[in-house]
Design a protein that fits this description.
This protein has 3 helices and 4 strands, in the order E-H-E-H-E-H-E. It has helices spanning about 15-30, 50-60, 80-90; strands at about 1-5, 35, 65-70, 95. The longest helix is centred in the N-terminal third of the chain and has 17 residues, at about 15-30. The two termini are about 20 Å apart.
């Protein structure tokens, strides 16, 4: 089974909002035969640069999946843009809205 993660703008959103925004997409991807790897990391503390920690962890996960699905608005989110460039540079399949 192919593995995929979802890249989406998260700035200013709660974990619940992020999960809600992607819930239908997760179902769709699973119906298409993908295993959706969860990249919401609720265990980060308020120490350090949390967005950068998320990005570092996401890039680690990108190394172990077959594709990354970029949700609408990704091109306006700095972390998503970096994830996209990683996919381009390292040959990870890209799926877009």
């Amino acid at each position: 089974m192919k593995k995929v993660i979802i890249s989406q703008p998260m700035k200013g959103k709660t974990e619940e909002q992020v999960r809600s925004e992607r819930s239908e997409l997760v179902k769709k991807l699973e119906k298409e035969g993908y295993e959706v790897v969860d990249t919401i990391f609720p265990d980060f503390t308020n120490k350090g640069n949390i967005p950068l920690k998320y990005l570092a962890k996401s890039i680690e996960y990108i190394a172990d999946v077959d594709a990354v699905y970029f949700m609408d608005g990704w091109q306006n989110a700095r972390g998503c843009k970096i994830e996209h460039q990683c996919c381009v540079d390292y040959g990870i399949s890209i799926i877009k809205d």
